[in-house]
Design goal:
By secondary structure, the chain is α/β, with parallel strands linked by helices. 31% of the residues lie in helices and 20% in strands. The protein has helices at residues 16-25, 47-53, 85-88, 94-98, 101-104, 150-159, 190-203, 219-230, 304-321, 333-339, 349-352, 359-384; strands at 5-10, 29-34, 39-43, 59-64, 67-70, 114-119, 133-138, 175-180, 187-189, 207-210, 212-213, 234-238, 258-264, 282-285, 289-292, 298-301. Strands 7-8-6-10-12-13-14 form a seven-stranded parallel sheet, with helices on both faces. It has a four-stranded antiparallel sheet with strand order 2-3-1-4, with helices on both faces. Strands 9-5-11 form a three-stranded antiparallel sheet.
Length: 395
Amino acid sequence: MRPQRSIVILAPDAVEEECCKAVFRLGGRVVKRLPLIRALVVEGLDRERCSLLGRHHGVKGIEDDIPVRAIGPAVVARPWRPLSVEQCCGVVPWGVRRVGAPQVWRFTRGEGVTVAILDTGISIDHPDLAPRLRGVYNAVGGSDDDHNGHGTHVAGIVAGGGIPGGVYGVAPKASLLAVKVLGDDGSGRLSDIIDGLDWCVKQGAPVANLSLGTPVPHPLLKKAVDQAKAAGVLVVAAAGNSGPRPQTLEYPAAYESALAVGACDRSGGVASFSSRGEGLDVVAPGKDIYSTWLRGGYRRLDGTSMAAPHVAGVAALLLAAARFCGGRADVWLRQALLQGAEPLRGLLPEDQGKGVISAPRALTRALATICSRSRDTDRRSRRSGGELSRGNCFG
């Protein structure tokens, strides 16, 4: 059983080391520092001693370190039978085709863009993923490798390399950061999620995929996602698998700073398990999704956990195509993804958000927006007598 932890929020004028000493004097220990939200994670303090610590002038408040878990799979994985090499060589799964990724691959495959996968880790020796892996961070301890499979499956949807006998992801040349924030059982703590987000911000990752969540809102989770967005990170989060009941979005997906992703199926509708509610942004393929698995294998899973990485992959495609245009990506990226979605007929926004994510439509919106802003900058430069901006926009 995991020891009880608390998150100590520091006051604006607090001296961190003094607060650490106060924890020690009360018999506790600091196990983690969370600079993203300016807090400490402590163990060994019961309620009474936490109350005493809360009176320290450097402590603004103390919160429970709540549990968080991987969202999905929505159903037990189907019995897996190996496919022949002829059947699966360079396979492009239906979800990758549905979001239109192959239609833009002649322009962009995600080159030079890094997507952080905050999950159970990534199988570091999987042949479809190892060449894409650019860094590993372990917030939970133990092995850096994935012994659950969830994170490996998610990573393959984003950036599977399409090796012979393998599978293509949405952005097959994007790079990956394996950020292990969930244990081998698929569960973790709020503090580990925040720790992982903080590392992503420091690494400069423009996209972070969180196929995880909790049904319980928490102010510190919101603050962390808000801070990540302010730092220029697009946080893509799975909506949850509690549909079709209304108002079932999980957190962090339900927060405005995250991009909430529900699941659609092959038939063109929203998957029955996909969570609904105000704040849902888009849907993406999330049923019968074929991707990478443990020990160099492949598997089909269902869930909004599988939908979110389709969106993260499309974001990587857009960033790679527009990387020479300059400016902060977060200014236009989210807008392009939403405006480029394809609405599903007969469904409310609470069921589908703006619709199904579309790489070609989103790329068109992105480049049009960037070029328009570049022209505006040029006009302002001319009026002020300055030199012309020479941003490169794709026609």
